[in-house]
């Protein structure tokens, strides 16, 4: 029995009790205290399509009345067999498994020790094992819950290693497709049931807002790990304990918003692979919360990330997918997705499509009624949209219009104390002035960008500033430019 596979074990224990797969699921839900398991999920375990986490293994052991070590050992055997099969498979077979096989583990790199030595969970992540659940769209929300728990834990305890996780373009396709299909089956977007009058819910909302404000003003490096710790130790445990459907939906909404925000902050600090994993799990939470606006917000962040990494075509597809899912639920979110679509088109030199998307973004922003927008949309405003339009116009070779939009963004962002947006838009303004050979204007904007960048912890801003420095260095024979470039190098 020591080499018994998990599927064989579950089938044997179920057969001894003459239970159906649904009987096992019903018993599991009685142990869990809520509807967390289905008969289909048990079937997946028996067919070895999924391998349960330790948490689930312990509940299964309770259901069958056997030692938890027995179920965990069988799961480890199945996992080992899967790894061996993956190593034997050719590249084409491995790619097919990565694209279509359901997620196998609900914790990020389960079964590895937390000692920081080779073999730790984060180090194993760098092996790019195809079973990484954080790159999948979980079949059940319980799997997403456990995946994010493991992700946040590793983020807090293994910061440096987790920051090395790579961004995998091919891993975007299945989760974003499955999310869109799931969202389109939901009822039309509605605000009913999203605001639950529970003090705990409001307290969590206040905490998230505080972190979002810090991110907007000071960059993603301020508080990212603290937010991950709060998600892991406060919000996710509440989801396990809560059985009221409306309260639970509100909690999934908040957990998804946190995962999206942590993903955004990870992107802003240059941890692109980590950002991708948080964002893909946020999609699953948004489905459970029945909140397509949250999912679309997550798709916007993924589009931003893909475009920054040079995957412009994917950036377009992600932005358009988010727009389809919105179905008119948020003008602010539509404006964000449209301007990101425009930016990605501009990166490909598709000027007509980019210009059309810019017009849609402006029109949507004009139609925003603040009272009708979710609170997390408050930073998708004129300061942000105008700044992104400025960057798009620079890519399209229209620096004069870019100057106008960059100025608008700077005025709006600085009136709100948003140093990162002010820095980024000043960088865009400096680039536009360089394009028209206005050296004085470029130096003025570049100096302001340098000043503001010192107030933020943002790798994205630092990288944009380095790019500006390289562009200005070409005019180094002009004294004000040379002095500014030297200041940038010293910073």
UniProtKB/TrEMBL annotation:
Residues 42-70 form the HTH cro/C1-type domain. InterPro entries: Cro/C1-type_HTH, Lambda_DNA-bd_dom_sf. Residues 78-97 are annotated as: Disordered. SUPFAM superfamilies: lambda repressor-like DNA-binding domains. Residues 86-97 have a biased composition (Basic and acidic residues). It comes from the Bacteria. This is Transcriptional regulator. It comes from Streptomyces gamaensis.
